[in-house]
Amino acid sequence: MKRRFFAWFPILAILLCGLCSCGNVSSSSITHAPSDPGYIPRVSSLVPSEESTATPAIVTTSFDSSTTFSLASPSSPSVPSHYADLPAPDFLCGQSFLYDAEQKCFLYIAGNDCIIYPASTTKLLTILFARTLLPLDMVVTPGDELNLVGPNSSLAYIKSHHQLTVEQLMEGMLLPSGNDAAYVLAAAGGRILNPGAPTARDEVDAFLMGMNEYARTIGLCGSHFTCPDGYDYPENYSTLEDMALIARLAYEDEIIRKYSNLPSDRVTYYSGHIMEWKNTNWCIDPYTPEYYIPEMNGLKTGSVSKDYYCFLGSVEIEGQSFIFGFFGEEKMTDRFLDSKTAVQWLKTYIVK
Length: 352
Fold this sequence. Notes:
Blueprint: H1 10-15, H2 81-84, E1 95-100, E2 105-110, H3 122-130, E3 139-140, E4 164-165, H4 166-174, H5 179-193, H6 200-218, H7 240-252, H8 254-260, E5 264-268, E6 274-278, E7 296-305, E8 308-317, E9 320-329, H9 334-349
Antiparallel strand pairs: 1-2, 1-9, 3-4, 5-6, 7-8, 8-9
Helix pairs in contact: 3-5, 3-6, 4-5, 4-8, 5-6
């Protein structure tokens, strides 16, 4: 049985979603770093206080992806009228969106009245939060947090005798979707937030507490994150609107853009060990021609079971940037086929 921690009234969080401004959060409320990719803004406000480190009450709530909630408030995401009248894209996936990254508006959204499970696309938020805590060139030695990685996880094959930089850990999360890399990064961040944490579990929990606060700070209002890798199901959940915002911020981050766009990479760790990593996103690999999309430049795949696959993708077409998301694909390759459908729809109706 998977662990349940930070069980913060998930249904209440969903019902409160309509009270927040989701999907249209202004980037002006977010502090952006200077052009130096190694610059880390200070986030002292996210360090857990003595009060916030108390263990919350455990509330057992049963729900699944068919759980619905109201999005009828004025802040609900809407598609501009001149896009709403366009033919809907013929996606295989029922929970999906198309988003204009420059105009910051939805071109299409469907199934947004249900929660979704972000799986490994959670790693994008993990990286974004870690970027506020850790310098890219900081060297990290993996520890007991490797024992927290779930069975049958996707791995970057990081071992306790390895030493990697923070940037290499992030690459290990983006290419092979390494859950081990996610836990090592989270533990490193947790040691910053809670220097006296007695165990790796406590370090990771400190990071997760900070990550959920960071999520609220950037405008997420229908999400709950219980792990740095997205492995937990169904405790780790989100909404299409929240994932669109995460994807937009990830698309604006040069480290995520740099590595999520690589089909593969040969990496030499700080410790001298060498590893070959291959990207799980087949749309950026010309050696998978059936799914290859030349305009694709990111972002992240995910899955929680053999019939629940997801994907956040980004493309640039004729100088215009777009993001799309698919959650709940029944087949692993359906997310790549839907990505091709999305690009064709954008070329037909949006990019003139």
